[in-house]
Amino acid sequence: MLKVNVSLAFADFKLEVVQDFSLSGITAIFGRSGSGKSTLLRVVAGLEKRAKGNVALDGEAWQNGSVLVPPERRGVGYVFQDTRLFPHLSVSGNLKFAAKRAPKAGGPQFEEVVEALDLSPLLSRSSDALSGGEKQRVAIGRALLSKPRLLLMDEPLAALDEARKAEILPCLERLRDQGTIPVLYVSHAMAEVARLATNIVVMEAGRVLRAGEASTMLADTEAASLFGLREAGAVMNARVSAHEADGLTLLATSAGPLLLPRVNAAVGARLRVRIHAHEVILSREKPVGLSALNILPAIVTELRLGDGPGALVQLQVGDDLVLARITRRSVQALQLGVGKTCFAILKSVAVARDDVGTAAGDWRSSG
After folding, report:
1. pTM (predicted TM-score)
2. Which secondary-structure segment (H or E) carries 320?
């Protein structure tokens, strides 16, 4: 457990965080720009000497009233938005620079990192000759080869276009699923958080507003407003059953089959699928004659009416929780209430490619 109880005052902003961070998988620290996410990472890394309070990792004090462990002795790896590679070194040189200075025992080895991040074709190239996505993969590899006890990632994909992000996200999923190095991952991009996070911490104005397991947080009707209603959506667990001849992929879920546009994953792969709340349609009776291919039985578990015309409905869909964003008028017309049965309807094309990622487990099964 990483225990943080710190404060840090600036002229127009104050960070005040009291939070225990799980050291399991990826903990996403989410919030709008200026909420204090990056400042919190700098405090954990020991880069903010004016911060007051306590920071401890697994009972080892990094900071308290009498102790201030310098950054280089905390065993922290740091991946910035800008990659900060050494321009005079090749990719191999950048990686080996970190490996030579890392602790001798434990941690990922050079060959393992190269394979996991698909860096082998890049090793002889100059760091100046890399694309943005390639540079970020090298930066992640360099941080891993320092054999950190904790990896801090500060908006690592923010400067990349969608194609470059698509290169990096599978690498981060592998890192999460291997589970050897805990990660604090700062982002204001909900799509990244929903795809990657094991746990989520939401910050605003220098404080933690809410924290919990990702699956629970994403399906929480109260937390939805913190993420932004347009971005509200929960995740379902699925397994690839088949790739159909018409270009669709058949997924098995605990609630029934789910058809999506072709998913680049092997049959048998475990996935997590983000379902946007505004893309879910509800019906009290099972509809017929629809173009929508996905119709799943559901039970209303929570209902939250907004101040305006909208409402959020939390649904039990098999073993998963899903959100639906509908109007108050529809709630009344369908006579929805906690415990009522209904059907959740989802168009196959409503799930974007970047809303599908690997689930926890053996990442090698994802193909």
Report:
1. 0.87
2. strand 320-327
